[in-house]
Model the fold of this input.
Amino acid sequence: MEKKPGIDDETFENLLYLSRLSPESTNKETLAAQVRQIVEYFEMLSKYTGDENPYDAYPAIPAEVLRGNDVGPAFDTADLKQMTPEFKDGYFRVPGMLGNDDHR
Amino acid sequence: MMTIGDLSVTMLAEKLASGELDSVSIVRAYREAWEQDEKSEKPLHGYIEFFDSAESDAVEADTARAAGDTRPLLGIPFAVKDNISIKGKRCTCGSRILEGYVAPYNATVIDRLIAAGAIPLGRTNMDEFAMGSSTEYSCHGPSRNPVDRDRTPGGSSGGSAAVVAGGQAPVALGTETGGSVRLPASYCGIYGFKPTYGTLSRSGVVAFGSSLDQVGLLARSVDDLGLMLSVIAGRDPLDNTSADRDFSSLAHLSCADLSKLKIALPKEFMDEQGLAPEIAAVFEETCRWFRDRGAAIETVSIPVLEAAISSYYVIALSEAASNLSRFDGIRYGLRKDPLASFDDLYVATRSDGFGAEVKRRIVIGNYVLSTHFSGDTYRKAMNVRARIQRDVAAVFETHDILLCPTNPAPAFPLGSRVDDPLDMYLTDLYTTFVNLARIPSLSIPAGKTAAGLPVGVQICGPMGGEKTILEVARAREKSR
Amino acid sequence: MSGLHKDGDLTYEILIGCEIHCELKTPTKAFCACENRYGGMPNTRVCPVCLGLPGAMPVPSKEFVELGAAAGYAFSCGINRFVTFDRKHYFYPDLVKGYQITQYDIPLCHDGHVMLDGKKVRLERIHLEEDVGKSIHREDGRSCIDFNRSGVPLIEIVSKPDLSSPEEAALFMQTVREILRYIGVTEGNLEEGAMRCDANINLKIVTNGTEYRTPISEIKNMNSFRSIRDACTYEAGRQLEEFRSNRQPYTAGFKNTMGWDDAAGRTVIQRTKNSFTDYRFVVEPDIPPVILDDAFLARARSRVGELPAEKRERFRREYGLSDSDAKTLTSERELAEWFEDAAKESGDPGKVANWILGELLAVRNDRNIDLADLPITPAHIAALVHALGSNTITSRQAKDVFAEMLETGERPSAIIRKHGMEQMSDTGAIERIVNEVFAENPAALEDYAKGKTNVAGWLTGQVMKKSRGQANPGIASELVQKRLADFS
Done:
């Protein structure tokens, strides 16, 4: 995997798509400058990366405190209706998806 | 003469208990202050919404008090940053993408405050999705600094700082990822406290950088911080990152014995050239003040702090890009549907709903998240963070607190901020290591510049060291 | 089934690895307290967490992790005691957060194997993750989404490419399903989509002394054994054809994603508009790592108990059952336990087996209910068998007792007593009845004297009738014969 110090057009396009943002959403030059700056910081990381276990950054919990089996309250249809006008007849509606589950 | 707008929570509680004041008058006084301010030439615009329900809540509180209710925060109003869910109230996070979204549930911290009798007063302004340090990135327009209305109150919890410092609320909830409570508190001359990661539940708090975020408090006195924390801290089954810490004793703080205090000063910050001379002066004066009272101050070296900003940016931006993936218009909020494919729905909604700064951070966040583009950078950042946690914890084995400036320069004029990377870097320098290390930190109002602008200084403690920090700050507060 | 195939000038092997997604039988969803149940009105089991509302945080349940670990034990996996979750990012309307919570870096279970008729199929890993909503397509080009399934807990079982034929792949799914149902980890209802299989298939071809591999095809979301078998069969054939006519290079890490069109009988390549996908895996910061202690692991292990194959073997050995009887009785854990309780209590496993296999199962299947919903218990069957064995009742009576106890749930002894069914084995009592019958039927005796041959049988029948069927038929017949002999 190559670390590119700037962003070329293809990278820019892919990043926007990953973010689901339109090309007009942001200025490529400004973005490229910010990416370059961030990448400079990456070098600093290498200076201090030792043999720490990265998971030490996340304090762990014992299995005992995990949630039990009590069933909790669910939303009423009324709650859902007021969330979006596109909640109709019990369903959330969207533009057409591909066949069931077969995009993944 | 002291008006209601000058009173702290503790003072209000006393006057409510004695009958000198009632809750309805208090709420009305804040409302008055806000309404008057809104008509002024340069309104603070700290509130996005002042709740109509506050007065009826106050009526209920007064009735309850008359019936013998003695809950600790009964009838005390508080302001809430616009990214903390209050059931039945709008919650926009300063963004158009949440236009129309009404929270269907309470954040746990709100639940606990309401259970203690407190009254939500209104929603305060913030940088969109907490991304910013001046509250200029809000879709509702910027807020102003009460000390100098041509200047920013800081951010992202700028609205909360403005209403507390401006006499429109006695206390406010904010949130932090890398300094967004401490910085505005410092700019506005009040207390801004970020507790240990996990002390306050994040359930119902809209996430920005999940492993860094904490709810914070902005207040006018140390006792207020202690009282509020004693009510809302504690493990929440709805938030697995919340910790089992009992802070009920914070409601009765004493003053620390300063003669026994061991203070650490990080060498890496002291060498920093970008610190404004007036800030440096206030900081030195603060150190002197502690020394005069017998505290031992020692310079310590934490070399890994050099990499703190890098680690912070990688983690914060990655988590932000991730957390903002859920905003797509399908289930709530703004929806822009070009009536084509669902991908088009995503792009149209997100492009229209997010502001420019947020969009930039999402894109950069995705760059960092992707091993395709940035290799094992994320993992390295996790590594460095683990090291920071370890090395900072080691300092607290031999020292009680750590002192450092909150920010390199005082509040800047509205609209003057240029996207200067060096600027951004310095602003984050003194605050982000705290969030990375998960430790608590309090910004205290330590002095003023010649122009009268507030200067804050940070008191940091070990994980779980809320009491130590507050008692040191209380000692200072009571003696001045 | 497995091994080398020859096709003209080349020989080839089929390599299949399966990924099975299986819904877990927990009372609540993976990360929230919504009820985990199939069906119901759409969007009636949703909350802030499984709808991806701002500020809502995932909270895993103990049962979720425990069942995942139990599945690991059932397949001899190693269990990772340091449990972490990751986020897998992609955009799709049925994925509420824009990311799925899964385990990428460190799966709950690693290695392990599944035995298929003596062949060891190695497992790569088993990990925990959450399911997504369900979509329905309307004619107007819109889709409707039901989020009841959003957040339902899943395990993903990943095998190594050890499966050598379409039949083996189908058998793998079948065996995994049987075992997981057995230990109570899943209901495994295929019609409800509780288990889905993705098959990764390619060929290793040798021609002219050189080895080639065809590109891997991933056939997604199959939910029947037949479709797994048919899809793999078709795809293997297609890849062979493609190799001959339009050879494609094999690239490590590259897969052609396909679906199986059952109606058309072929695999179909699936393309997305922009094929740039990057899941951007990152540690799930809202769920701290969980440490599993010895007590937890012991509990998970105890949920597995004895696996079907072990139990079959033991039933053959211990109870002297035939292969096929053992197989049927161990086909469900509940049934096996029911049988064992009854067998132990009655002391006659063979007879108990007959009653269950012959009578009880027929009734249960007829009524389409669970064993637990029948009004009788293993003790009932044990008592019935005992009553038969001790000659208290006849086998014809036993059938009546069985029918009645199925209706009322009464104990056999109570029923027998109620109807006064105790078989008369007391010779004296039967003799009295024989005397009565003889006295009442002089004509029969005359017939006997004349040489009619069926008189004994008829007289015995009368004795049985007079005793309301309770006389021991053997003794009755014997006594009748004796009297007749005396007579003549």
Remarks:
- The first helix of chain B runs from residue 9 to 18.
- DSSP finds 17 helices and eleven strands in chain B.
- Chain B touches chain C through 44 residues (CB under 8 Å).
- The domain at 1-480 of chain B is CATH 3.90.1300.10 (Amidase signature (AS) enzymes).
